[in-house]
Amino acid sequence: MPETAPVILQMDFPFSGPWGEEMAAQLEGLARDIAAEPGLIWKVWTENAEAGRAGGVYAFETEEQAHAYLTKHTNRLAEFGITGIEAKVFRANTALSAITHMPFTASPGA
Amino acid sequence: MPETAPVILQMDFPFSGPWGEEMAAQLEGLARDIAAEPGLIWKVWTENAEAGRAGGVYAFETEEQAHAYLTKHTNRLAEFGITGIEAKVFRANTALSAITHMPFTASPGA
After folding, report:
1. Which PANTHER family does the record match to this protein (chains A, B) (predicted)?
2. Looking at residue B21, what is its pLDDT?
3. Is B61 in CB contact (< 8 Å) with chain A?
């Protein structure tokens, strides 16, 4: 665990699918690339087919790494024709999060 | 891990502190209550002192439990005089999240 509290980035954007398993099959390569992102502790991939939005929640070791990734991913999404990104950055409260079952350690990945 | 994908709830609201360790000391009791919430897998507590906002990212086993908690927590925050809540609900993509180091298992808690 990093000495300072992890930084939480939440972002989402308009998305027209695919969803679920089909989304996973299509974006597996991107996921493996993101898994190696500097400072990434974890990313939860999020999707809402009814709202037509997808995105993710990320934990990074530092605020600089979170912002660098946000810029990089925003540019990558623009190449896919995706705009209208909504993003928020927070610091995690590790003491309270530990009580509510959130371990800030990365798994080995799949 | 539940058979269906976990539901991710992200919410935040105007907050004037306290922050960090002081926040953790003040809200430890609330955290222990939330840790026992039906269907909660984990909650990450989020804070942004510069933006004057705090909240959390939650994983629940079902959409019904996520929405029930959102209603309950919105009412609880209103009792504290807190309004202006922004909330989003998504389904997690577990296959992609596993690649990016996100284990959907609860820790024993602190």
Report:
1. MONOOXYGENASE YDHR-RELATED, PTHR39169
2. 96
3. no
What one-letter code names the amino acid at A22?
E
Classify the complex by whether its ipTM is higher than 0.90, answering yes or no: yes
B22-42: per-residue pLDDT in tens?
A: 999 999 999 999 999 999 999
For chain A, domain boundaries: 7-99
Residue that the structure tokens 């996921």 belong to = A31
Is the CATH code 3.30.70.100 the one for domain B7-99?
yes
Q: Which of residues 67-86 of A touch B (CB under 8 A)?
A: none
Please tell me what DSSP assigns to residue A5.
P
Tens digit of each residue's pLDDT (9 = 90 or more) over B46-93: 999 999 999 999 999 999 999 999 999 999 999 999 999 999 999 999
Find the CB nearest B96 among A45, A53, A93. A45
